[in-house]
């Protein structure tokens, strides 16, 4: 999965939905297989292999397959609320509520699932001419926070902008957590900070943030976005392994009494050798 690219309409990225990490991995793995230059069709089944995902997550193939089977079924039941048309064609006359996929198929003998996208979703994945975002799948596939993936997609849209301001209430609506985390401290602890940690450790972005108040209430987050060629995790994996530095091994210096005794022994030995020399003469 090092070269697969995800293409999404910005309208889809900004839509309102909620997916778990495993559901995100499945849907993004499938999206990376969609041909952006082809006419939309819902006849194609896209395959997601437990073997491939297990190599990235470190879990066994058997465990991973059981997880994606359950996640795929949940994905079939998920809703997505879309307010805009693809290709920058503006707001829809009515908000569209649809599903991600219409068919799930389990190939137990091969440890993989196949899925067919919902017809309503395909225009947001294919024949994209403007206002779409692309990124390499490897930048999100190892994330462990579903919010990390969502934040990454929102931020990568504005990669060249460097600073991006987002309203907290808008974020909560997009993530479908309007009724959760009423305190900003909880939102930061459970949503924002794990997400940014995931992004900084696993992706090609380095992100920090500040906040803005409206009156006495924190209402907006201002993100500073930088590119990093290699993720923090990749840097650590490629770094040479060093054994811990050990102090130099030195011979203990003799104490004063030992030095005196040693000098006396040398003098006595020299005197004895002199006596032997005189006797031989």
In terms of topology, how is this protein built?
Blueprint: E1 5-9, H1 10-13, E2 16-17, H2 21-31, E3 46-49, H3 50-57, H4 61-77, E4 79-84, E5 91-99, E6 101-107, E7 112-117, E8 132-136, H5 146-156, E9 163-167, H6 168-174, H7 184-202, E10 205-214, E11 217-227, H8 232-238, H9 256-280
Antiparallel strand pairs: 1-8, 2-4, 3-7, 4-5, 6-7, 9-11, 10-11
Protein described:
- With 281 residues, this protein is of the alpha+beta class.
- The chain folds into 2 domains: 1-142, Winged helix-like DNA-binding domain superfamily/Winged helix DNA-binding domain (Arc Repressor Mutant, subunit A); 144-233, Winged helix-like DNA-binding domain superfamily/Winged helix DNA-binding domain (Arc Repressor Mutant, subunit A), CATH 1.10.10.10.
- The chain has helices spanning 10-13, 21-31, 50-57, 61-77, 146-156, 168-174, 184-202, 232-238, 256-280, and strands at 5-9, 16-17, 46-49, 79-84, 91-99, 101-107, 112-117, 132-136, 163-167, 205-214, 217-227.
- The strands form 4 sheets. A 3-stranded antiparallel β-sheet has the order 2-4-5.
- A hairpin with a 2-residue loop joins strand 10 and strand 11 (217-227).
- The longest helix is centred in the last third of the chain and has 25 residues, at 256-280.
- It starts with a strand and ends with a helix.
- The relative contact order is 0.13.
């Amino acid at each position: 999965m090092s070269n697969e690219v995800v293409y999404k309409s910005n309208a889809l990225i900004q839509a309102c939905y909620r997916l778990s990490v495993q559901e995100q991995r499945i849907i993004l793995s499938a999206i990376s297989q969609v041909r952006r230059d082809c006419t939309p069709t819902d006849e194609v089944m896209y395959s997601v292999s437990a073997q491939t995902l297990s190599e990235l997550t470190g879990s066994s193939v058997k465990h991973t397959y059981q997880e994606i089977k359950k996640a795929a079924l949940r994905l079939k039941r998920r809703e997505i609320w879309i307010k805009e048309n693809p290709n920058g064609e503006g707001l829809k006359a009515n908000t569209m509520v649809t599903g991600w996929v219409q068919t799930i198929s389990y190939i137990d003998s091969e440890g993989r699932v196949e899925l067919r996208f919902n017809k309503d979703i395909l225009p947001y994945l294919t024949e994209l001419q403007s206002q779409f975002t692309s990124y390499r799948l490897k930048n999100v596939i190892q994330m462990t926070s579903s919010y990390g993936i969502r934040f990454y997609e929102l931020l990568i849209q504005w990669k060249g902008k460097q600073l991006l301001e987002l309203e907290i209430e808008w974020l909560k609506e997009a993530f479908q957590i309007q009724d959760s985390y009423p305190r900003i401290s909880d939102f930061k602890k459970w949503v924002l900070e794990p997400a940014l940690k995931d992004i900084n450790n696993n992706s090609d972005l380095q992100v920090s943030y500040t906040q803005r108040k409206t009156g006495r209430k924190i209402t907006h987050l201002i993100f500073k976005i930088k590119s990093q060629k290699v993720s923090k995790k990749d840097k650590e994996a490629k770094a040479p392994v060093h054994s811990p530095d050990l102090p130099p091994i030195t011979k203990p210096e003799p104490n004063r009494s030992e030095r005196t005794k040693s000098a006396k022994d040398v003098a006595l030995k020299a005197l004895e050798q002199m006596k032997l020399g005189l006797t031989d003469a």
